[in-house]
Write a structure and sequence with these properties.
The chain has 436 residues and is of the alpha/beta class. 33% of the residues lie in helices and 19% in strands. The strands form three sheets. The protein has an eight-stranded parallel β-sheet. Strands 9-10-11-16-13-14 form a six-stranded antiparallel β-sheet. The protein has a three-stranded antiparallel β-sheet with strand order 12-15-17, with no helix packed on it. Strand 13 and strand 14 form a beta hairpin. The longest helix has 18 residues. The structure holds alpha-D-galactopyranose.
Protein backbone atom coordinates (compact mmCIF):
# COMPACT_ATOMS: atom_id res chain seq x y z
CA UNK A 1 0.00 0.00 0.00
CA UNK A 2 1.33 3.44 -0.92
CA UNK A 3 1.47 6.30 1.59
CA UNK A 4 -1.50 8.05 -0.04
CA UNK A 5 -3.78 5.04 0.25
CA UNK A 6 -2.57 4.57 3.80
CA UNK A 7 -3.45 8.17 4.69
CA UNK A 8 -6.93 7.73 3.23
CA UNK A 9 -7.46 4.55 5.18
CA UNK A 10 -6.21 6.31 8.30
CA UNK A 11 -8.72 9.13 7.80
CA UNK A 12 -11.51 6.56 7.59
CA UNK A 13 -10.37 4.76 10.69
CA UNK A 14 -9.95 7.93 12.68
CA UNK A 15 -13.62 8.76 12.32
CA UNK A 16 -14.45 5.76 14.43
CA UNK A 17 -11.64 5.31 16.92
CA UNK A 18 -11.83 7.90 19.68
CA UNK A 19 -10.60 5.95 22.68
CA UNK A 20 -12.45 8.00 25.24
CA UNK A 21 -13.21 5.25 27.71
CA UNK A 22 -12.81 7.50 30.71
CA UNK A 23 -9.51 5.94 31.82
CA UNK A 24 -6.39 7.74 32.98
CA UNK A 25 -7.92 11.12 33.72
CA UNK A 26 -4.71 11.53 35.71
CA UNK A 27 -1.35 9.95 34.75
CA UNK A 28 -1.13 6.20 35.44
CA UNK A 29 0.78 5.00 38.49
CA UNK A 30 2.26 1.60 39.05
CA UNK A 31 5.18 -0.69 38.44
CA UNK A 32 6.75 -2.10 35.27
CA UNK A 33 9.38 -4.78 34.90
CA UNK A 34 11.60 -3.49 32.11
CA UNK A 35 14.20 -1.04 33.39
CA UNK A 36 15.12 -3.13 36.42
CA UNK A 37 14.52 -6.72 35.27
CA UNK A 38 14.94 -6.41 31.49
CA UNK A 39 14.86 -9.72 29.63
CA UNK A 40 16.11 -11.99 32.39
CA UNK A 41 14.50 -15.27 31.40
CA UNK A 42 16.81 -17.51 33.38
CA UNK A 43 14.38 -18.81 35.96
CA UNK A 44 16.62 -21.77 36.69
CA UNK A 45 19.57 -19.78 38.01
CA UNK A 46 17.78 -16.56 38.91
CA UNK A 47 14.28 -17.56 40.04
CA UNK A 48 13.75 -14.43 42.14
CA UNK A 49 14.38 -11.97 39.34
CA UNK A 50 13.45 -13.65 36.09
CA UNK A 51 10.45 -12.58 33.98
CA UNK A 52 7.95 -15.09 35.29
CA UNK A 53 4.72 -15.12 37.26
CA UNK A 54 6.53 -15.13 40.63
CA UNK A 55 8.11 -11.73 40.00
CA UNK A 56 4.74 -10.15 39.21
CA UNK A 57 3.04 -11.80 42.18
CA UNK A 58 5.82 -10.51 44.43
CA UNK A 59 5.43 -6.97 43.14
CA UNK A 60 1.64 -7.14 43.49
CA UNK A 61 2.11 -8.23 47.11
CA UNK A 62 4.44 -5.34 47.80
CA UNK A 63 2.15 -2.77 46.11
CA UNK A 64 -0.81 -4.05 48.11
CA UNK A 65 0.92 -4.45 51.47
CA UNK A 66 3.46 -1.63 51.67
CA UNK A 67 1.19 1.37 51.25
CA UNK A 68 1.68 1.90 47.50
CA UNK A 69 -1.84 1.04 46.40
CA UNK A 70 -3.41 3.59 48.74
CA UNK A 71 -1.22 6.27 47.18
CA UNK A 72 -2.43 5.38 43.68
CA UNK A 73 0.25 2.96 42.43
CA UNK A 74 -2.10 0.37 40.94
CA UNK A 75 -0.79 -1.07 37.65
CA UNK A 76 1.50 -4.12 37.61
CA UNK A 77 2.87 -4.14 34.08
CA UNK A 78 4.57 -7.03 32.33
CA UNK A 79 7.05 -5.82 29.71
CA UNK A 80 8.83 -7.72 26.92
CA UNK A 81 9.97 -11.37 27.14
CA UNK A 82 6.82 -12.90 28.64
CA UNK A 83 5.79 -14.72 25.49
CA UNK A 84 6.35 -18.16 24.15
CA UNK A 85 8.19 -18.08 20.81
CA UNK A 86 5.12 -19.67 19.20
CA UNK A 87 1.48 -18.63 18.99
CA UNK A 88 -1.04 -21.37 19.87
CA UNK A 89 -3.09 -23.36 17.31
CA UNK A 90 -5.70 -20.60 17.18
CA UNK A 91 -3.01 -18.03 16.43
CA UNK A 92 -3.15 -16.48 19.90
CA UNK A 93 -0.16 -15.22 21.83
CA UNK A 94 0.68 -17.36 24.82
CA UNK A 95 3.06 -16.92 27.74
CA UNK A 96 6.17 -19.08 27.99
CA UNK A 97 4.70 -22.00 29.98
CA UNK A 98 7.79 -22.75 32.02
CA UNK A 99 7.85 -19.20 33.39
CA UNK A 100 4.09 -18.59 33.57
CA UNK A 101 2.78 -22.10 34.41
CA UNK A 102 -0.53 -20.71 35.73
CA UNK A 103 -1.17 -18.64 32.58
CA UNK A 104 -2.05 -14.97 32.42
CA UNK A 105 -5.74 -15.19 33.55
CA UNK A 106 -4.67 -16.69 36.85
CA UNK A 107 -2.03 -13.99 37.34
CA UNK A 108 -4.66 -11.36 36.45
CA UNK A 109 -6.95 -12.78 39.13
CA UNK A 110 -4.14 -12.69 41.66
CA UNK A 111 -3.50 -9.03 40.85
CA UNK A 112 -7.20 -8.09 40.78
CA UNK A 113 -7.80 -9.84 44.10
CA UNK A 114 -5.35 -7.39 45.62
CA UNK A 115 -7.21 -4.39 44.19
CA UNK A 116 -4.58 -3.84 41.50
CA UNK A 117 -4.59 -3.85 37.70
CA UNK A 118 -2.61 -5.85 35.15
CA UNK A 119 -0.68 -4.40 32.23
CA UNK A 120 0.91 -6.37 29.38
CA UNK A 121 3.29 -5.71 26.51
CA UNK A 122 3.00 -6.34 22.78
CA UNK A 123 4.74 -4.97 19.72
CA UNK A 124 3.33 -3.52 16.51
CA UNK A 125 5.65 -5.31 14.11
CA UNK A 126 7.00 -8.68 13.14
CA UNK A 127 8.92 -9.23 16.42
CA UNK A 128 9.12 -7.50 19.79
CA UNK A 129 12.28 -5.50 20.52
CA UNK A 130 13.75 -8.62 22.14
CA UNK A 131 12.67 -10.93 19.32
CA UNK A 132 9.44 -12.47 20.64
CA UNK A 133 6.33 -12.78 18.45
CA UNK A 134 5.08 -9.43 17.17
CA UNK A 135 1.60 -8.18 16.37
CA UNK A 136 1.40 -7.66 12.63
CA UNK A 137 -1.63 -5.83 11.21
CA UNK A 138 -3.52 -9.08 10.68
CA UNK A 139 -3.02 -10.10 14.32
CA UNK A 140 -4.23 -6.90 15.98
CA UNK A 141 -7.80 -7.99 16.50
CA UNK A 142 -7.02 -11.42 17.87
CA UNK A 143 -4.40 -10.00 20.26
CA UNK A 144 -6.79 -7.34 21.58
CA UNK A 145 -9.43 -10.04 22.10
CA UNK A 146 -6.95 -12.32 23.83
CA UNK A 147 -5.83 -9.60 26.24
CA UNK A 148 -9.44 -8.71 27.05
CA UNK A 149 -10.32 -12.36 27.66
CA UNK A 150 -7.39 -12.66 30.06
CA UNK A 151 -8.52 -9.67 32.13
CA UNK A 152 -5.75 -7.30 31.05
CA UNK A 153 -6.27 -3.63 32.02
CA UNK A 154 -3.41 -1.87 30.22
CA UNK A 155 -1.49 -2.48 27.00
CA UNK A 156 1.98 -1.13 26.24
CA UNK A 157 2.19 -1.36 22.45
CA UNK A 158 5.80 -1.07 21.32
CA UNK A 159 6.93 -0.46 17.74
CA UNK A 160 10.11 -2.41 16.98
CA UNK A 161 10.32 -4.14 13.60
CA UNK A 162 7.67 -2.22 11.71
CA UNK A 163 7.80 0.65 9.23
CA UNK A 164 6.08 4.06 9.50
CA UNK A 165 3.20 3.04 7.23
CA UNK A 166 2.49 -0.07 9.28
CA UNK A 167 2.65 2.03 12.44
CA UNK A 168 0.30 4.62 10.99
CA UNK A 169 -2.21 1.86 10.38
CA UNK A 170 -1.50 -0.36 13.36
CA UNK A 171 -1.71 2.07 16.28
CA UNK A 172 -5.21 3.36 15.41
CA UNK A 173 -6.37 -0.16 14.56
CA UNK A 174 -5.27 -1.45 17.95
CA UNK A 175 -7.13 1.42 19.60
CA UNK A 176 -10.26 0.43 17.76
CA UNK A 177 -9.74 -3.26 18.50
CA UNK A 178 -9.29 -2.59 22.22
CA UNK A 179 -12.48 -0.53 22.24
CA UNK A 180 -14.33 -3.26 20.41
CA UNK A 181 -13.57 -5.79 23.14
CA UNK A 182 -15.80 -3.83 25.52
CA UNK A 183 -13.19 -4.17 28.28
CA UNK A 184 -11.80 -0.80 29.36
CA UNK A 185 -8.06 -1.01 28.81
CA UNK A 186 -5.48 1.76 29.07
CA UNK A 187 -3.49 2.07 25.86
CA UNK A 188 0.14 3.15 25.84
CA UNK A 189 1.60 3.79 22.40
CA UNK A 190 5.31 3.84 21.63
CA UNK A 191 4.60 5.14 18.12
CA UNK A 192 6.20 8.62 18.54
CA UNK A 193 9.58 7.18 19.57
CA UNK A 194 9.84 5.35 16.27
CA UNK A 195 9.22 8.45 14.17
CA UNK A 196 11.35 10.98 16.01
CA UNK A 197 8.89 12.14 18.67
CA UNK A 198 8.04 15.53 17.15
CA UNK A 199 5.69 17.18 14.68
CA UNK A 200 5.57 16.95 11.61
CA UNK A 201 6.13 13.25 12.06
CA UNK A 202 3.78 12.99 15.03
CA UNK A 203 0.26 14.38 15.09
CA UNK A 204 -0.22 14.79 18.83
CA UNK A 205 -3.87 15.77 18.55
CA UNK A 206 -4.67 12.56 16.75
CA UNK A 207 -2.44 10.53 19.06
CA UNK A 208 -4.30 11.90 22.07
CA UNK A 209 -7.57 10.73 20.53
CA UNK A 210 -6.43 7.14 20.15
CA UNK A 211 -3.92 6.55 22.99
CA UNK A 212 -3.95 7.38 26.70
CA UNK A 213 -0.20 7.84 26.84
CA UNK A 214 2.78 7.57 24.59
CA UNK A 215 6.54 7.22 24.81
CA UNK A 216 8.10 10.17 23.00
CA UNK A 217 11.80 9.55 23.45
CA UNK A 218 14.54 6.99 24.05
CA UNK A 219 14.55 4.43 26.86
CA UNK A 220 15.60 5.51 30.30
CA UNK A 221 18.72 3.82 31.72
CA UNK A 222 19.87 3.62 35.30
CA UNK A 223 21.99 6.78 35.32
CA UNK A 224 21.86 10.52 35.97
CA UNK A 225 23.16 11.10 32.44
CA UNK A 226 20.20 9.29 30.96
CA UNK A 227 17.77 11.12 33.24
CA UNK A 228 19.32 14.49 32.35
CA UNK A 229 19.13 13.81 28.63
CA UNK A 230 15.43 12.98 28.95
CA UNK A 231 14.65 16.10 31.00
CA UNK A 232 16.59 18.19 28.49
CA UNK A 233 14.84 16.76 25.45
CA UNK A 234 11.38 17.18 26.92
CA UNK A 235 12.14 20.75 28.00
CA UNK A 236 13.80 21.75 24.75
CA UNK A 237 10.70 20.52 22.92
CA UNK A 238 8.08 21.67 25.40
CA UNK A 239 6.33 23.95 22.93
CA UNK A 240 5.39 20.90 20.91
CA UNK A 241 4.87 18.43 23.75
CA UNK A 242 3.29 20.38 26.61
CA UNK A 243 0.02 21.25 24.80
CA UNK A 244 -0.46 17.59 23.83
CA UNK A 245 -1.02 16.50 27.44
CA UNK A 246 -4.28 16.62 29.35
CA UNK A 247 -6.69 14.28 31.14
CA UNK A 248 -6.63 10.93 29.30
CA UNK A 249 -3.63 11.88 27.13
CA UNK A 250 -0.12 11.94 28.56
CA UNK A 251 3.46 12.27 27.39
CA UNK A 252 5.57 9.49 28.85
CA UNK A 253 9.24 10.26 29.56
CA UNK A 254 9.59 6.62 30.72
CA UNK A 255 9.86 4.75 34.02
CA UNK A 256 10.90 6.00 37.46
CA UNK A 257 14.30 4.50 38.25
CA UNK A 258 14.29 5.64 41.88
CA UNK A 259 15.43 2.85 44.20
CA UNK A 260 17.91 1.29 41.78
CA UNK A 261 21.68 1.86 41.48
CA UNK A 262 22.29 4.90 39.32
CA UNK A 263 20.87 7.89 41.21
CA UNK A 264 21.91 9.65 44.40
CA UNK A 265 19.18 10.72 46.82
CA UNK A 266 19.27 14.23 45.35
CA UNK A 267 19.01 12.90 41.81
CA UNK A 268 16.12 10.65 42.81
CA UNK A 269 14.29 13.71 44.16
CA UNK A 270 15.02 15.44 40.87
CA UNK A 271 13.32 12.67 38.93
CA UNK A 272 10.26 12.68 41.19
CA UNK A 273 10.01 16.47 41.02
CA UNK A 274 10.38 16.69 37.26
CA UNK A 275 7.97 13.81 36.65
CA UNK A 276 5.43 15.68 38.82
CA UNK A 277 5.97 18.88 36.82
CA UNK A 278 5.68 17.02 33.50
CA UNK A 279 2.45 15.21 34.50
CA UNK A 280 4.34 12.04 33.64
CA UNK A 281 3.20 8.50 34.39
CA UNK A 282 4.58 7.42 37.77
CA UNK A 283 5.54 3.92 36.77
CA UNK A 284 8.35 2.58 38.89
CA UNK A 285 10.82 0.02 37.67
CA UNK A 286 12.69 -1.06 40.75
CA UNK A 287 12.73 -3.95 43.19
CA UNK A 288 9.94 -3.21 45.64
CA UNK A 289 11.18 -6.12 47.78
CA UNK A 290 14.44 -4.28 48.41
CA UNK A 291 13.98 -0.57 48.62
CA UNK A 292 15.80 1.73 50.99
CA UNK A 293 13.93 4.21 53.11
CA UNK A 294 15.04 7.29 51.19
CA UNK A 295 13.77 5.88 47.86
CA UNK A 296 10.54 4.84 49.53
CA UNK A 297 10.05 8.28 51.07
CA UNK A 298 10.60 10.01 47.72
CA UNK A 299 8.27 7.69 45.80
CA UNK A 300 5.62 7.87 48.51
CA UNK A 301 5.78 11.64 48.99
CA UNK A 302 2.11 12.58 49.12
CA UNK A 303 2.51 16.16 47.97
CA UNK A 304 4.73 15.24 45.02
CA UNK A 305 2.12 12.63 44.05
CA UNK A 306 -0.73 15.12 44.49
CA UNK A 307 1.09 17.56 42.19
CA UNK A 308 1.62 14.84 39.61
CA UNK A 309 -2.03 13.76 39.86
CA UNK A 310 -3.55 17.24 39.78
CA UNK A 311 -7.02 16.87 38.20
CA UNK A 312 -6.57 19.79 35.77
CA UNK A 313 -3.89 17.72 34.10
CA UNK A 314 -1.94 20.66 32.70
CA UNK A 315 1.65 19.70 32.00
CA UNK A 316 4.26 22.10 33.41
CA UNK A 317 7.10 23.89 31.66
CA UNK A 318 10.68 24.96 32.09
CA UNK A 319 10.49 28.69 32.82
CA UNK A 320 14.13 29.62 33.05
CA UNK A 321 17.61 28.37 32.33
CA UNK A 322 20.00 30.55 34.25
CA UNK A 323 23.66 31.07 33.39
CA UNK A 324 24.35 29.67 36.84
CA UNK A 325 23.00 26.29 35.60
CA UNK A 326 19.94 26.60 37.77
CA UNK A 327 16.70 25.83 35.98
CA UNK A 328 13.22 26.77 37.14
CA UNK A 329 10.16 24.68 36.29
CA UNK A 330 6.52 25.55 36.89
CA UNK A 331 3.18 23.78 36.71
CA UNK A 332 -0.26 25.34 37.25
CA UNK A 333 -2.51 23.35 39.58
CA UNK A 334 -6.13 23.30 40.71
CA UNK A 335 -7.43 25.91 43.17
CA UNK A 336 -5.03 28.55 41.79
CA UNK A 337 -2.09 26.68 43.26
CA UNK A 338 1.10 25.85 41.40
CA UNK A 339 4.31 23.89 41.71
CA UNK A 340 7.81 25.30 41.33
CA UNK A 341 10.96 23.26 40.93
CA UNK A 342 14.44 24.71 41.20
CA UNK A 343 16.86 22.23 39.59
CA UNK A 344 20.61 22.53 39.87
CA UNK A 345 22.62 21.27 36.90
CA UNK A 346 25.79 22.29 38.76
CA UNK A 347 28.52 19.89 39.83
CA UNK A 348 30.18 21.83 42.64
CA UNK A 349 28.30 22.60 45.86
CA UNK A 350 24.88 23.72 47.12
CA UNK A 351 23.95 26.90 45.30
CA UNK A 352 21.97 29.75 46.82
CA UNK A 353 19.53 30.83 44.19
CA UNK A 354 17.76 34.14 44.75
CA UNK A 355 14.49 35.08 43.15
CA UNK A 356 10.95 36.26 43.86
CA UNK A 357 7.60 34.97 42.72
CA UNK A 358 7.14 38.17 40.72
CA UNK A 359 10.34 37.38 38.80
CA UNK A 360 8.75 34.01 38.06
CA UNK A 361 5.69 35.76 36.58
CA UNK A 362 3.38 35.38 39.58
CA UNK A 363 0.68 38.01 40.04
CA UNK A 364 0.73 40.45 42.91
CA UNK A 365 -0.68 38.83 46.06
CA UNK A 366 0.07 36.85 49.17
CA UNK A 367 1.28 33.30 48.85
CA UNK A 368 2.48 30.46 50.97
CA UNK A 369 4.82 27.72 49.88
CA UNK A 370 5.33 24.20 51.12
CA UNK A 371 8.77 22.70 50.57
CA UNK A 372 7.82 19.26 49.29
CA UNK A 373 10.95 17.31 50.22
CA UNK A 374 11.91 19.25 53.35
CA UNK A 375 8.35 18.88 54.61
CA UNK A 376 8.17 22.42 55.91
CA UNK A 377 6.14 25.50 55.15
CA UNK A 378 7.84 28.55 53.74
CA UNK A 379 6.25 31.45 55.60
CA UNK A 380 4.22 34.27 54.13
CA UNK A 381 5.51 35.25 50.80
CA UNK A 382 4.19 38.01 48.65
CA UNK A 383 5.01 38.25 45.02
CA UNK A 384 7.87 40.66 45.52
CA UNK A 385 9.48 39.00 48.58
CA UNK A 386 13.07 38.08 47.74
CA UNK A 387 13.81 34.51 48.73
CA UNK A 388 16.81 32.29 48.49
CA UNK A 389 16.79 28.51 48.11
CA UNK A 390 19.80 26.29 48.61
CA UNK A 391 19.89 23.64 45.88
CA UNK A 392 22.27 20.70 46.01
CA UNK A 393 24.23 19.77 42.85
CA UNK A 394 21.98 17.61 40.62
CA UNK A 395 19.21 18.11 43.15
CA UNK A 396 16.03 20.11 43.42
CA UNK A 397 14.01 22.24 45.73
CA UNK A 398 10.34 21.72 45.05
CA UNK A 399 7.62 24.06 46.25
CA UNK A 400 3.87 23.72 46.28
CA UNK A 401 2.76 27.35 46.07
CA UNK A 402 -0.71 28.30 47.20
CA UNK A 403 -2.75 31.28 48.27
CA UNK A 404 -3.83 32.19 51.78
CA UNK A 405 -7.32 30.79 51.22
CA UNK A 406 -5.93 27.33 50.75
CA UNK A 407 -3.98 27.31 53.98
CA UNK A 408 -6.43 25.07 55.78
CA UNK A 409 -6.29 22.41 53.09
CA UNK A 410 -2.50 22.45 53.10
CA UNK A 411 -2.30 22.17 56.85
CA UNK A 412 -4.21 18.91 56.64
CA UNK A 413 -1.95 17.54 53.88
CA UNK A 414 1.13 18.68 55.75
CA UNK A 415 -0.06 16.98 58.91
CA UNK A 416 -0.72 13.71 57.06
CA UNK A 417 2.68 13.80 55.40
CA UNK A 418 4.44 14.53 58.69
CA UNK A 419 2.66 11.66 60.39
CA UNK A 420 3.57 9.27 57.57
CA UNK A 421 7.22 10.31 57.58
CA UNK A 422 7.57 10.11 61.35
CA UNK A 423 6.11 6.69 61.20
CA UNK A 424 8.18 5.06 58.48
CA UNK A 425 10.95 7.20 57.19
CA UNK A 426 12.42 9.20 60.04
CA UNK A 427 15.91 8.61 58.72
CA UNK A 428 15.25 10.29 55.39
CA UNK A 429 16.81 13.69 55.83
CA UNK A 430 16.19 16.31 53.19
CA UNK A 431 19.45 17.44 51.67
CA UNK A 432 18.58 21.10 51.50
CA UNK A 433 16.99 23.84 53.49
CA UNK A 434 15.15 26.96 52.60
CA UNK A 435 16.20 30.38 53.78
CA UNK A 436 13.87 33.30 53.52
C1 LIG B 1 11.77 -0.87 23.88
C2 LIG B 1 10.94 -0.04 24.85
C3 LIG B 1 11.32 -0.38 26.28
C4 LIG B 1 11.12 -1.86 26.52
C5 LIG B 1 11.91 -2.67 25.51
C6 LIG B 1 11.60 -4.14 25.61
O1 LIG B 1 13.12 -0.53 23.92
O2 LIG B 1 11.13 1.32 24.62
O3 LIG B 1 10.56 0.38 27.18
O4 LIG B 1 9.73 -2.16 26.42
O5 LIG B 1 11.62 -2.25 24.19
O6 LIG B 1 12.27 -4.89 24.66
Amino acid sequence: MGPLAATRLLAMISLTVALDNGLLKTPPMGWMAWERFRCDIDCKDDPENCIGEGLFRDMADRLAEDGWKELGYEYVIIDDCWMSMLRDEQGRLQPEPSRFPGGIPKLARYIHDRGLKLGIYADMGTRTCMGFPGTTLDKIEIDAQTFASWGVDYLKFDGCNSNPVQQMLGYPLMSKALNATGRPMAYSCSWPVYVGGLPMNVNYTFLGDICHLWRNYYDIQDSWDSLQSIIEWFSNNQDDLQPAAGPGRWNDPDMLIIGNFGLSVDQARSQMALWAIMAAPLIMSNDLRNLDNSARAILQNKVAIAINQDPMGIQGRRLLQEKSHIEVYWRPLSHSASALVFLSRRTDMPYHYRSSLAKLHYNIGNYKAYDVFAGSTVKALNATTEFSVSINPSGVVMWYVYTEQQSKQMEILHYQQKKASQFTFNNAKPGHHTVL
